[in-house]
Automatic annotation (TrEMBL):
Tagged with keyword Cytoplasm: no
GO molecular function terms listed in the Swiss-Prot or TrEMBL record: endonuclease activity
Lineage, uppermost ranks: Bacteria, Bacillati, Actinomycetota, Actinomycetes, Micromonosporales
Tree of life domain: Bacteria
Annotated Pfam families: Endonuclease_7
Keyword Lipoprotein: no
Keywords attached to this entry: Endonuclease, Hydrolase, Nuclease
UniProt name for this protein: Recombination endonuclease VII
Length: 228
């Protein structure tokens, strides 16, 4: 019997589905002069999946889980075994779809489990990742400060202050002092100007007699408004 001609005017017939298709719809193959194989891409993918399943079965004696078909704009979450729209998944630029493998609730739960397992909690993870120290080093530094804010002396400070230029930890501050340094952009010049400004616009107490003080107005600025 004469062999069946698989090529015709830039077309090729797939040996699995027997459909005539353009050559660019066939997988690349270095064994043929035109660089295209005998199976179209969909049929070649099915053959590859079947071959992989046979190898896994022979080597590990287990079945390969079949891929799940989901509608457009949706994704399957393997943690909760549910198909959800893309909006239910966090973004992930590393994935071809642009979304993470797990939906947002499952993603958050797995993230918490990972932080607990590797770092002992979210706070330890935060300190290690952002400042390079842990809760142990935090408590040691706080003890060196006497358990108070390094600036105002307030009790129970919880904010680890660091140099934004070098990343070095400087001390532990309360919320207001930490936020104040941030607003002044860690600039000694701005802080010095603020001190000069306050001294020039704030009323001062002047000792006029032992134990007697008088409030002196600032050298510049407007007096407080009065109601008549």
């Amino acid at each position: 019997m004469a062999p069946i001609n698989d090529d015709r005017d830039g077309l090729r017939r797939c040996r699995d589905c027997s459909e005539w298709k353009p050559l660019d719809q066939f997988c690349a193959s270095s064994k043929r002069p035109d660089g295209r194989g005998s199976y179209c891409k969909p049929c070649f993918n099915e053959r590859s999946k079947a071959s992989y399943a046979r190898r896994v079965k022979a080597k590990f004696d287990r079945e390969v889980r079949l891929g799940r078909v989901v509608p457009d704009g949706h994704r399957f979450c393997p943690a909760c075994d549910a198909v959800k729209p893309f909006e239910a998944f966090p973004r992930n630029r590393a994935d071809a779809s642009g979304y993470a493998t797990y939906c947002k609730p499952c993603h958050n739960a797995k993230t918490r489990d990972t932080k607990d397992r590797l770092y002992g909690g979210n706070r330890e993870y935060h300190l290690r990742q952002r400042y390079g120290v842990g809760e142990k080093e935090f408590q040691e530094l706080l003890a060196e400060q006497g358990g108070v804010c390094a600036i105002c002396g307030g009790a129970n400070p919880q904010h680890l202050d660091h140099d934004h230029r070098t990343g070095w930890v400087r001390g532990i501050l309360c919320f207001n002092c930490n936020g104040g340094l941030g607003q002044f952009r860690d600039s000694p010049m701005r802080l010095a100007r603020a001190i000069t400004y306050l001294r020039g616009t704030t009323w001062q107490r002047a000792l006029i007699h032992p134990g007697v003080y008088q409030m002196c107005s600032p050298t510049r600025g407007r007096p407080p408004s009065r109601r008549f």
